């Protein structure tokens, strides 16, 4: 039984086992050492053994003289070798020397044991301190990793919130972009309608080809539509640029979030590693490799800058959406009010043309009636002239026959005088009747000319009414509604 505190016996003091008769195969030996970790001098997994323990075995016995075996002792202190003693006893030391030697050994042994106990206590305290320091250091590292994981989770949540808000804002701005494109496309129809109305009104004839209020309102409508189209196009370009900014900010957020997720996964894995975890290995020199490119301040500032950039882009996008909505409402209201003005102008002009047409038709009917009456009167005058001519023939025939009376019978009697007066009266009447006939025929020509003018003016009014009422107003009935202009459908 060995005393507690004494070192174990060296392995070379034990008898060696006999070597096996058959050596194992090389493949078997290689397989047995396949998964072994190579020996490292710094490893603490092997038991500690003092190097001084093996120094006693290093002294090899020799047959040299005793003075050579103890070179440190002077020759006077060397016990003389006595070859012969009484009673055949061979002695080197006295009993006192023996007792002193034993006491010295006891004291040295006690001192060695005391030193060993103190060393063991120091080693125990050192090992305890090492374990506590290692535990404290590892705990601080684990705590720092946990704080790092919490920081990453915080910024991950902030990035997720901002990314969701940016996605919603981008989708809203994309919807506004589609509304702008539809509104811009819907303005093409009213522009073409107003332009065609102007072209159709150029086909009016005669006096109706006037620069009236309808034409002025149509020109104003074309100017307003062109101005609205330019403003909508500028707003659409701005929205497209803002969409690009939003997409860039979103890509930065997504990239940062992906990096945060990867870092969170790695740090969480490191945070959960323990001394008993699997997959831990030596990585020599890894502590001397500094692959970091940021510090906590720059790391947090980078994510904060990404979030601030996204927030700024969202605020700009929200203002742009509000201004775009106001622009859509303003342009739609402006175009609609001008559209109503043009329609009112068309309605008023159509009413004027319809009233003029009605008056022309009334005058034309009266003119035709008057022409009929004049023609009837001309026929009466012509019949009266014919009747008067017959009377004139009778009176002149009588006078001519009475010129053939013989001699004294050629008397200027009352009958003769009356016949002469009758002829004169008939001639005068015929002259008056011919004057009336010429006047009636002139009046008939004037009435016919007036009828032609009225009929031509009626054709002009019918043409203008057809252009304004059928063609122009027929096209303007298909004008897009306010909902279509605003781009809601």
UniProtKB/TrEMBL annotation:
It is found in: Cytoplasm, Cytoskeleton, Cilium axoneme; Cytoplasm, Cytoskeleton, Flagellum axoneme; Cytoplasmic vesicle, Secretory vesicle, Acrosome outer membrane. Its main location: cytoplasm. One of its GO terms (biological process) is cilium assembly. InterPro entries: Tektin-like, Tektins. GO terms for cellular component: axoneme; microtubule cytoskeleton; nucleus; outer acrosomal membrane; sperm flagellum. Pfam families: Tektin. The keyword Cytoplasm applies. It is a peripheral membrane protein. Keywords: Cell projection, Cilium, Cytoplasm, Cytoplasmic vesicle, Cytoskeleton, Flagellum, Membrane, Ubl conjugation. Microtubule inner protein component of sperm flagellar doublet microtubules. Interacts with TEKT1, TEKT2, TEKT4 and TEKT5. Interacts with CCDC38. Microtubule inner protein (MIP) part of the dynein-decorated doublet microtubules (DMTs) in cilia and flagellar axoneme. Forms filamentous polymers in the walls of ciliary and flagellar microtubules. Required for normal sperm mobility. Belongs to the tektin family. This is Tektin. The lineage of its organism: Eukaryota, Metazoa, Chordata, Craniata, Vertebrata.
